[in-house]
Predict the structure.
Amino acid sequence: MGLLRWMRKHFGVGSQRTDLGVPEAIDLEDFIVVKASDTLDLHTFQPKDVSSIVSEFLDGAVAAGFVQIRIIHGKGIGVQRRIVRGILEKHPYVISFGDAIDGAGWGATVVRLRLQDGSRGPGES
C-alpha cells in the first residue's frame, strides 16, 4: 500500500478521523528530501538520457558547492565516456577532468569545478 493511500485510509476520506485535516491531494515532493552527492553513476540510465542527466548533475553540483565530483560511465567501448567528456569540455564551471586514479581507471571521470562565484575553491590558485 502506498503512503498516500495509507494516509487517506487512516486519516482522510472515508475515515472516522477526518478532523485531522489531511488534504485530498498531497504533493509528495514536499516530503522528499534529496541529498546532494558528489558522485553520479550512469549505469542505471539509458544512453539517450546521459547528456541531460550529466548537465543537470553538473549544475546541481555547482549549486551545492562541490569543487570535485566523480562521474561513473563504465569502461565498455567508450560511448558514454565520450558523451560525458563532450559535455565537460563545454560546461562553464569545469576547470579540468580526467580518468579516476583509483581502481575505476578509465571507467570513471573525476571533474574539478569552479565555485558559483567563479573562484576555484579552497587551496586552488
